[in-house]
Each structure stands twice: as structure tokens, then as C-alpha cells.
Design a protein that fits this description.
Aspartate Aminotransferase, domain 2; binds pyridoxal-5'-phosphate; five-stranded mixed sheet; about 15% strand; about 40% helix; Aspartate Aminotransferase, domain 1; single chain; alpha/beta; 2 domains; seven-stranded mixed sheet; 14 helices
Length: about 350
Amino acid sequence: MKAAFTSDNIAGASASVFNAMMEAEQGDSMPYGNDDTTAEVTTMLSDLFECDVDVYLVSTGTAANVLSISAMTPPWGSVLCHSESHLLNDESSAPEFYTNGARFVGVSGSDAKINPVELQRLVNQKVGDVHSCQPSAVSISQVTEVGSVYSLAEIRAITEVAKLAGLPVHMDGARFANALLSLGCTPAEMTWKSGIDIVSFGATKNGTMASEAIVVFNKRFSKELGFRRKRGGHLHSKMRLLSSQMKAYLTDDLWRINAQHANDMMALMQAGLARVPGIKIQTPAQANMLFCTLPVGMADYLMAEGFAFGWGRWEEGVVRLVTSFRTNQEAVEAFIESANRFEVSRV
Ligand SMILES: Cc1ncc(COP(=O)(O)O)c(C=O)c1O
């Protein structure tokens, strides 16, 4: 295979993350998060977010999302999220499983961003009616599932509607760093200063091996999250192996450096593909993911050339390209060159 743009999960871990985990493996340490490194990670994240946060490390993004939300909703509640969200489409029935059967309701909106007007209609629907699910929480994805990024104003428009209705807001930040660098704001601005109560601070796509942080700003959810993480099987006994990864990820700006590289590679990819006749960019990529429609036959040609990408899950011709901290510039240029060659050969 020449190069894969299938997902940012295909890259392994950054060397310093891997080395930190190997070091953490030496000697004995208190289990279940009662070790020094786990405490350090909480301090580091509190500094990063400029507020005193509670942190729950887990090993998958799905666990981070569903545990966060399970602390926000009763089983008779409904969770409002975009109809294209990972929660609704890519986490099997884990959301229902972890929330004991709460209902997940898809909200519409262009570029996979929740439309606040539509949200306003849903947060007030049948409130108090014992025959209906009660709106209980809102979740947004930053980066979204189509590669767009909510602006701060767009986040605030959603959290204002939610807060007025008394609902907490969760952010699925599987690509938190990519979104943050795209906006050029601070972590605090993109989260609690904009009304976010809990963020799934993703790291696995951007350099850790398997370490994601549930970062809690609104501590009324903390106690329950602690018990739910254990109940859900995500309180790792050797937590230091997760926290050492997160510590390395947050050290020397590794998380920013990695995400900047992924975003730069996508900017290069998008600029190149936009000039290839016949390719239609769907939603312009603002971070490290791009959806575009290829002319008939191009996807097969590119696959035969040795490239891999997301394909076959969407409408005819639509492909998903994702860059990561490991994406190599020559591979991006080779992909664009092959796409151009295909078009030229057809004329
Ligand atoms: C938007 C989004 N949220 C969450 C996740 C986390 O999923 P996983 O459980 O595979 O780590 C992903 C991974 O693909 C994602 O794209």
C-alpha cells in the first residue's frame, strides 16, 4: 500500500508516548488511579483548561462519550445530538447500554452541526409529559463527523438554548486538538467558557495508544461518573499506563504539534484536490478530515494505485480522507498526482 487516508486511527502512537508507557511499566505503583502520574495528569489538564477539573481516563472514545452522557441523563431522558453524530451512528448500542436505555434523538443542521433553531424546538418538546422521553442532555462533536468545526459563536448558540432549558452539554472531542488549532482559541474558550459541562478530550487519534480523558467542568457529574466508570469496566487497575500516555501527550506541546501536522496535511490535500477537475469537495475541511465526491471510476483507480481511504459507506462516489500526525507529505502529493493522472487519462 502506498498510503492510507482511511482514518487518523491507523497511525500508531508517538514515540514519547510509547516510551513513557514503557517507563511507567517499571516498578510498582498504586492501582486504580491512585498513582502520582494520574494526579499529575489532572493537574496538567486543570492548567490547560484554566480551571480546576476532574479527570476520568478511559481507553476508548466511545467509553468517554457514553460514560459522560450516562452521568447526564436518566433512563427516561432523551439526548439530543446531530443525526450524523458518532454517538448515533458509530457506537453501536453503547449509548443505550450505558444510559440504561435513554433515547438518542438526531437533530438536523448543515455540515453536521446542530441547528440551534431546531434544537430549540426539541428541548421544549413534551416537557413534563409522563408519556414522553424528557430532553435531558445535548451532545455536539468538535470536529464534526464531516470535518467541519463549530465556531465559538456556534457552540454558544447551542449551549444557550440548552442552558435555558436546563440541559447540560457534552462535547465529543475525539479530534479536540485538531478543532482547537483550527479555531486558534484556548481550550477554556472552546469548552467551559462556551457552556460545555463535560468534554471527551480525545488523544488516541492524535498520538496516544489508548488513552482518552473525560474532563469534567461541572462537578455535579463527577461522583456519578466515578461510580459509572467502575461499573462500566473502565476503571483500569494499572491506570498509570493510561496516565503516562496522557502525560506524554500533554508534555512539550506534543498534542498541538501532532494536530497541527495533521491539519497542515489536510490543507495541502484539500488545496490539491480542489484543482482536480471532476472532484467535488463536500464540506470544506477545517481540520483533518475531508469528504469529497470523486468522478466515476476514480476511486477504483486510486485504490488500484495503492491508496486507501474511506469508501462505500456513503452515497455513490463519496470518499472520506483523514490525515494524522504521521501523514507524510509525499504521500499526499502522490495522491493528488494520481487523481490528476486519472482525469487527464480520461480526456
Ligand atoms: C467523532 C468521533 N467520536 C468518537 C470516536 C471514538 O471512537 P472509538 O471508541 O473508536 O475510540 C471517534 C472515532 O472514530 C470519532 O470519530
